Amino acid sequence: MNAADPWIRRFFPTPDAPVQLVCLPHAGGSASFFRPVAQALKPEVEVLAVQYPGRQDRHHEPMIDTIGALADHVFRAVTRAVDRPFALFGHSMGATLAFEVAVRLERAGRFAERVFVSGRRAPSCRRDERVHRRDDAGIIAELRRLSGTDQRIFGDDELMRMVLPAVRNDYRAAETYVCATDHRLSSPVTALTGDGDPKASHDEVRAWSAHTTGGFEMVRYPGGHFFLVDHAPDVIRVINERLTRPAPAPR
Questions:
Q1: Can you give the residue ranges of every domain in the chain?
Q2: Alpha-carbon torsion (18, 245, 32, 162), positive or negative
Q3: Cβ neighbours, 10 Å, residue 109
Q4: Active site residue 32
Q5: Among residues 39, 61, 194, 233, which one has the fewest Cβ atoms lying within 10 Å of its Cβ?
């Protein structure tokens, strides 16, 4: 943990790494999800994992239930923490958040080498989703459907009571998000997707190309919404290759 900033976790501080990767978790997720990524990418890449309020060691803090407000906070934290070339990686809700943070950074004159968006449709592709309005059983059913939650958690009532408020909060943020029409990046975007992801179709993921002028690529994997867990070595290889041999980001 970075004692100076509750928003940022450096599991493996690597001050000599030439590039930093800011990682943003999915709905209900926490910074610890990216600990294996940080270990795999060091020493070439230093991972800065974002910890949202309202979970784990920040469980006592009020949660933030809009993407815009959350992006404002993360933008300030990233501005404080990043001190060399950097990239952003977000999964699911974290991908939308990575995009909004990148927009804010570009407006401040700081350009990511690359923005990785995983398991998420483009900001311009809206669906009428209302999972955050369901009762607890309905949210649990959605978590089971996406197969990204440790099955042991479902059998622990006390743990589920601790987890569900953050999940509901984050679903509310993701499902009520509306992208501003003028939000477009100069940095290149790499979209990672599972070919059976119920939350993001092939066309919805390809639509990310309209949100950048800096180049776009889509990398597909077998699997569903949490394909990156099953294909972690391949995903990490893609990240490492793009960041250690990056194309220059347009300025």
A1: 8-244
A2: positive
A3: 7
A4: no
A5: 233
**Residues 157-175: tens digit of each pLDDT:** 777 888 899 999 999 999 9
232 three-state secondary structure = helix
**Is a pLDDT exceeding 60 seen at residue 1?**
no
What is the structure's pLDDT at 157? 72
Distance CA 118, CA 128 (A): 20
Q: 251 or 30: whose pLDDT is higher?
A: 30
The domain 8-244 having CATH identifier 2.40.420.20: the answer here is no
Examine the pLDDT at 132 and tell me if it is beyond 50.
Answer: yes
Rounded CA separation 129/142 (Å): 12
Please give the mean pLDDT across all residues of the chain.
92
Per-residue pLDDT band for 140 (boundaries 50, 70, 90) equals: confident
CB 76 within 8 A of CB 32: no
What residue type is assigned to position 142 of the chain? E
**Could you give the residue ranges of the DSSP H alpha helices within the chain?**
35-41, 67-81, 93-107, 136-146, 151-154, 157-175, 202-206, 227-230, 232-244
Among 79, 80, 71, 39, which residue's Cα sits nearest to residue 52? 71
**CB contact set of 138 (below 8 Å; sequence gap of 6+):** 131
Q: Which of 30, 92, 118, 187 is catalytic?
A: 92
Contact 5, 77 (CB under 8 A): yes
Give me 53's structure tokens.
């309020």
Structure tokens at 44: 């070439």
